[in-house]
Amino acid sequence: MDTYPVHATPPPASSREDLARAWTGAATSSAYIPRAADELEAVLLALVDELLAALHEETGGGLVSVGEQVGSRLVDEGFIDPESLRATIDVLTAGLLGDLGDTPDAELARRTAALLGAMSAGYADGLRSYTLTQQERLKQALFNAMVRAEHSLRATENRFREVFTSSAVGIAITDLNGMCVESNPALSQILGRPHNHLAGRILTDYFLTEDPMPMAGLAGPRPVPGDLSATYRRVLDGEVERVHEQRRLRNADGDTVWVFVAISLLHDGAGDPAYFVTMVQDVSELQLLSDRLGHQLLHDALTGLPNRKHFESKLETTLGQAAPNASITLCFVNLDGFAMVNNSLGHEFGDRLLRTVGRRLEAAVSDERAMVARLGGDEFAVLVEDLPVTPDVNGIIERITAELAEPEYLGDRSAGLGASVGAVRCRAGEMSAEELFRAADTALRRAKSTGRRQWATFHGREDGLARERDALAAELPAGWENGQLTVAYEPVVRLATGNGGHRTVAARPVLRWRRGEESFGHRFCTELAERTGLSLQLGPWVLREACQLLPALREVFADEPEPLVRLQLSRAQSGDADLVRAVNEALRDTGSPPGLLELALDTGALLDEYGDARDNLDVLNDIGVATGLCGFQGGPRELDLMAASSVRSVTLAQHGLGCAAHETASGVLREETERLVRTIAAGGRECSVLDLRTEAEARWWASAGAVTTQGGVFGLPVSPSELASLPDPTRRPANG
């Protein structure tokens, strides 16, 4: 190998650090090198040192070797862009040979050129090796990706095949004409066919075309009507992406199977529709359960008849579908004395009786287009869509009562059946379902009010009045709360006998309801309060109000020894268990003696032993409160009650005996009333009458032996602030 002696050192114009810095700047500005600038500068400084050392070596072979190694190192350090090599040669040429113009050194120039040439050759070899390495890596990566894709595809196919084969849901793949290409075992099992039986067959042939949708009100999902082929066309035409429907199909045994069907499209590689995928789930057991639950929801568990919910739905549907002039009859049937059957013969017999009633009611209207339902308890309903041959309402009720007339037997026990019936017949366009329901209920309540085994039909005018009264009864509690309901006082007058004049001796508390421009009196308010139960709250309130005025009444009636407040109690108030406590509290709070208060208890409540009525009468007498009987009719039991109790007064019922003084009263009524009044007087009781209309009536009652009268012709009620005017005989009602 040749040797080249060194005659001079590299030009000193550029220091090694400046050269490395210049090399770094040129390389990074010409190409992207994935190294930090200061890190790259340190690497290039080391390479500069190697190059400078090579230039000082005397052996030429070492120079070439160093150049090739440095060139290869450049590739390893990220100089893979040819532009970075060009920039490197330019910088090194300028740095190593920059001062040769001033001090020529041919040998240094030759060695520098040889070094840079070797470095370029080493760079080319390194870049070629790098390229081959990258190609090999890419090829290996592509091969690995292909292998993984094949494995993934094979695994996906295996998973799909496993799902397809073992799925409990039937799956069929059909072409766009509906012919089955492939199906799984689950679908064959649903159809009851051998495996692959469907191949080459039209899938829709196994599905039933449903009838029109069933009537609303039945429970459970309903199948979709129409041919399934239309559904496939909707999916193929893009109207819907996928479809879920409930359908029915016929299996190999001819049985109907309820299924839930899902239909979607499979597309080919170009995105065009290629196949239908149909998934079929057997929901027959769920449907049976749904139907069973639906039947239980809409039918009475004991009788099997439709229940109230189902009946109301049927009534609404019937009225909605019927022509406006079509006739509808609705009957409500309520068993009489059913509680006695349960109590005496047991609930088993009672349940049997209810089932019998259901069957007999169905038999009564078996020739009609009708529905029988059990509304609850011992109440049934019969709905009839009237036909030309349907009898009138009386005829339908006669059929019902005739069917129920036969006793029911269970072993050696028997019970007669009786029922009250309320009926309404109207045109379908005249009433809503709610109004018709309420009308039949109103008629039933009217029938029951007249006794057992009675029937009644609906009358619009009577119902209108009853509804108005019901509305007022419901409004009365609010009227009390907002101060519309007040306590007023009307005179209790001692009737004159002989030439003497009438004299006011006490006050009677009465209710007065001012409702806007309307005003309602005591009797009407009491009736409303009895219907809603409000009278139990009003009684103690009226007691407190009246007792608070006892001191003022003692001044008004200073010369009267009798009780100054005479309060008549309703039936509910007479039987109230808290009556005595309310009286004691009212007297204690006002400090008034009990002898100034007289409470008249309802005669009917005492005879019926309603609530605590009997005990209340005895205890009131014991604590010194004067007592009386009101609503007295004069029957033997009432006379016996009067004789057996310590009542001070007897107030005759306003209707019946109270009409004896009317001009239209018969002679028999007058004679019997006079005899009764004498009997009351003979027993040491004061006889009192209510609301006399004229002076003539007052004179007749005085002559018959009545002692006092309350209200009526002797004056209107006054407010507490007007108590001083109460005894004024000149006060008269507006009607005289």
TrEMBL record:
SMART domains to which the protein is assigned, alphabetical: EAL, GGDEF, PAC, PAS
Residues annotated as domain PAS: 156-211
Annotated ranges, domain GGDEF: 326-460
Occurrences of domain PAC (ranges): 242-295
Limits of the EAL domain: 469-731
UniProt-listed InterPro entries: Biofilm_reg_signaling (IPR052155), EAL_dom (IPR001633), EAL_sf (IPR035919), GGDEF_dom (IPR000160), Nucleotide_cyclase (IPR029787), PAC (IPR001610), PAS (IPR000014), PAS-assoc_C (IPR000700)
Top-rank taxon: Bacteria
Pfam families reported in the protein's UniProt record: EAL, GGDEF, PAS_4
SUPFAM superfamilies according to UniProt: EAL domain-like, Nucleotide cyclase, PYP-like sensor domain (PAS domain)
PANTHER family the record matches: BIOFILM ARCHITECTURE MAINTENANCE PROTEIN MBAA, DIGUANYLATE CYCLASE DGCP
Protein's name according to its UniProt entry: GGDEF domain-containing protein
Protein species of origin: Actinophytocola xanthii
Lineage of the organism: Bacteria, Bacillati, Actinomycetota, Actinomycetes, Pseudonocardiales
